[in-house]
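Hmm, how's this folded?
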Amino acid sequence: MNNKLVVKLLGKFEVSRDGKPISITSRPAQSLFAYLILSAGTAHRREKLAGLLWPDSLEETARSNLRSALWKIRKALPSSASAEYVFADDLTIAFNASAGYWLDTAELEKVSEKASADELRTILSLYHGELLPGFYDEWVVLEREHLSAAFEHHMARLMSLLENEHRWLDIFDWGERWIKLGQKPEPAYRALMSAHAAKGDMAKVAATYERCAKSLKEFGIETSEQTRELYERLKSGKERLETRSTVAVADKRKRPLKTNLPVPITSFIGREKEVEEVVKMVGKNRLVTLAGSGGVGKTRLAIQSSHKLLNKFKDSVWWIDLVGLSDPSLVPQAVAKVFDVREVPNQPLTETLVGEFQTKQVLVVLDNCEHLILACAQLADRLLGGTRHLKILATSREALDILGETVWPVPSLSLPDIDDSSTAKSLSKSESVRLFVERATVMQPQFTLTDQNADAVTQICRRLSGMPLAIELAAARIKLMNADEIAKRLDNRFSLLTSGNRSALPRQQTLRAAIDWSHELLTVPEKILFRRLAVFAGGFTLEAAESTCSHNDVQRSDVLELLGRLVDKSLVVVDTAVASGQTRYRLLETIREYALEKMKSTGEETMLRDRHLDYFKTLAEEIEPHLYASEQAEWFAKMDAEIDNLRAALDWSVVDDAGAENEVRIRNGFQLVGVLTWYWRRSYLHDFIERLENMLSHETGAAPTIERARALYTLGFFHGTDGKIKEARPYLEQALAIARKHNDPLTLGWALTHLALVTCLLQEYNSSLSLLEESLALTRELGISGKAVTGMTLAWMGEDYLGLGDEVRAQKLYEESIALLRETNNRDLLSFADRRLGLLMLKQGNYEWAEILFKEGLKMNHDIGHAPGTAGSLVAMAKLAFVQGKLTRAAQLCGVVDGRLEAIKAPMMAMDVVEFDHVTAALRDQLDEKMLEKFWIKGKSMPTEHAIAFALGQS
């Protein structure tokens, strides 16, 4: 541990470096230091730290205390190391997770469930007592309970391992050590009883049992049935039962479980034993990987097994489909999307997920990990290492290869015996034959298994090695040829399968042969469309396929017919997307991989990716007006369905390539970003900030374009709404300069308005007004998009006049903004103007009008899925309740906001944050602490729909 900061928090508070103690004498500074290092890598906002550590102090006092504590920490640390360990700016404070340090609690947290007895002894010897003894902060108590539970869990495992290894002397040592820590651990007493019995000392067995009963009685608890039964068996001399750590009995009442597990439309053939085996393995292990080649049936086996496991997990079983994902960095986002977990500024999404799963008993199924193997392995390792109850079932062509993983090779379906006298009746016992017959019957209802075609079906199944995907592809051809003809084609095409020991061949070759064979049966136009469809990520619509894939040999009018044929031949899957209201299509992962190779081999990739980017750029331009009108919720849903394609298109736009094509690509990428500014802000803010910064770092050598200006003002707006005012301004000023040169009114109007927002937040009200007046002169006559800019311009002008103290002028501008936005029913922007006017009415004592505006804004934000706006509307409702003297209702609504912000992991608008801080500070001053906590927690735990109904006065 040389040159490392050594921190011990278990049973003491001790910090040292290079063997020399570091004295942080102030208790508040110690508490702050401990909180920061226990959440290393997380940037905490200063106001939240102040409220957490000094909840009973006034806001200004708490902030002053925080500054003082931070100064003491920096003073105590070596001057050369202070900046290395603690990062702080005007908004946040964080402990550097990459710095060289050692923390005793971290060692305890990362103990593997596969650790040996000696490994457990080494780690558990670090536990000298509870976390931070003598500290009574609420956060300490919660973390203390978590670490104590982890310690007891691993101690129980140690006792069990030592018993299995007959290490009785070690049990005497560690059992008594556990008891002396002041807890009442029955597993320790049971292990000691067994150890004394093994030594033949029955008097000490009885004495240990009496000690256990007496210690538990102090808490009003009787010894468990497990302990009593062990004592009776040891006393009577019967064979000792295996002892295990006590497991809490879950509530076994039947209850409906929410899950997103796929429900297959075709039956599951065979593999009953495999399903039961998978269920048992998941019960015994935290990470199980179903491994095997593509097409062997890993996904279908995982689906079937997961349905069997539904009632085993209190928080259900959740399916993460990685098929459409190609970027490894987006694996955590795929998981977060399913669990509705949003990114937190300055916090890795993986760490946010660890926090989400801390208290959940859930099974996460990661399907199709092979193309993202490293990212999946890293995510699984961190999630399992940072939680206690989470379990993962993965499907992959190879193992994740991390500690604690149980790999189960998925076998092929059972094959028929080689028997010249095979009959239809005898073959029906074979899983592979049953699968072929069922799928063939679906394709050709007249097909039946007979004694006449039994041999041909046997050959098909055996030569495809019992692989489900290959068999299904073969069965799909039954419409074109009979079983004998299919078998003959296999003879001709798959020569490898008939030369030597087929079982010794890699299964990937078998699958590729099946797909090759299926591909060769396609007509030339079908082959062209098939390979071109690989350009889509996460699925596509018919219109997208027609626009992107129709070129030269495939006309737009041909696409529907060709697509139908590919669906019939099981190469394309049909999805009915309820949310977007459109039928969508996709290639299965293995099939898409094969099609991508074909696409690249023909030299069409660059052309197709350019067309793909151009299509989604054009689609975004067509959609843009709808995002400002009454149908915006419908169009938001349609864009959500295309999110993987949007990411792929943006990534392609910055592929390095010389020439004019590259400049066009970048311009298209910028345009795609710029016209969807409000869409990104609603749902995908942090996802696109990094992507957009990367795009803007690419220089084309040409003069800055209007599309670049739009991308710049989008990034500036993102930073501004995220509270990063200083970062926002340079981008917006660049956008404004470019827009002025091109004299594009709409772009110039948005650039002016977004820059005005930043100057308003900096309280430069006159400068902001000057920018807004210029914007207003440009955008009033620009149609529906112009009305959106004008509506926001008027609302920002109201903010400026309010900042200057002119409430009459501010009210008039808010009302004008609302009237204009209501014309187009732009619920996104209208809800903000409603909220701001409502707060002004509240200030003037017009509670009735304020309530009407707040409720209208809340309904609109909720209807269009604008989570940050919904939170802002709830803040306004909380403030209304507070000024009306309904303090407990205000506290409950603040709890609702707190819960929503944690769930969505996205920031509110800066002015909403200010209002939230004001009302929470006022509640702390006027409401009893216990009462505040009671109603805050009540609100925080409310389901979303219930919370909205409560806020609207409907419950």
About this structure: DSSP finds 45 helices and 14 strands in the chain. The longest strand covers residues 391-396. The two ends are 58 Å apart (CA to CA). The longest helix spans residues 138-164.
